[in-house]
Amino acid sequence: MYRSAIGALAVAAAFAYSPSYAVVLISNMAQPTRDATKIDASLWAAQSFTTDADAHRLNGIDILAGRRAGDPVQFAALYSDGAGGPDTLLSTFSIAIGSGSLAVTTLLPAMQLLLAPSTAYWLVIGASGVGSVGWAYAEGNAYSGTGSFGAYAYSDNLGATWSAFGIENPYQMAVDVAAVPEPSAWAMLVVGLLAVSCRRSRRGC
């Protein structure tokens, strides 16, 4: 009976830690598309968003993009919030915007990143070399999720400086996150793993 209870605790701990608790922090992907910005070496774009009152682990960001022309070097990154736009680079993303019509492109972070509570961040999409890509922006500022969209910004010097604008018609994106386990969940996970280890020991516990 004791071992059964410990086993149940281990399962509960693993469930509490499971990344299946993934949620969409904010998304306007279901909104009508107004148009798409042509992003190339002369114009980069950025969209800000603010997290809710909880900490989250960033799983990835989906954007509505396409219309690639030529073969530009594509760039996507998450930045902290500065006085006039993106500030400090936090993580880059894998990015491969296609040449077809606008479609969902998934950006995966190059490193694990925790998003702080009630904090603003900027997603930057850029291109260099010969060619361009398109990033769609929505009609209006309706969205779902517990986060919120802020201003958008443009750079004409490959992200060296930025000019921020209003909050209407934000770029289309969905921020996918997972909850960060509470300390109690971590403790339950450790106890559960120790219990499993004990059960597998020949000497028992």
Number of strands: 14
Report the radius of gyration as a whole number of Å. Answer: 21 Å
Helix content: 10-25%
Quaternary structure type:
single chain
Largest sheet report? 14 strands, antiparallel
Distance between the termini: 14 Å
Residue fraction in strands: over 45%
Give a quick set of tags describing it.
alpha+beta; 14-stranded antiparallel sheet; 205 residues; 48% strand
How would you sum up this structure in a few lines?
This protein is α+β, with helices and mostly antiparallel strands. It has two helices and 14 strands. The longest helix has 18 residues.
What does this structure look like?
The chain has 205 residues and is of the alpha+beta class. Helix content is 17%, strand content 48%. It has 2 helices and 14 strands, in the order αββββββββββββββα. Strands 1, 2, 3, 4, 5, 6, 7, 8, 9, 10, 11, 12, 13 and 14 form a 14-stranded antiparallel sheet that branches. A hairpin with an 8-residue loop joins β6 (86-94) and β7. The longest helix is centred in the C-terminal third of the chain and has 18 residues, at 183-200. The chain is globular, with a radius of gyration of 21 Å. Residues 2-20 and 184-193 have low confidence and may be disordered.
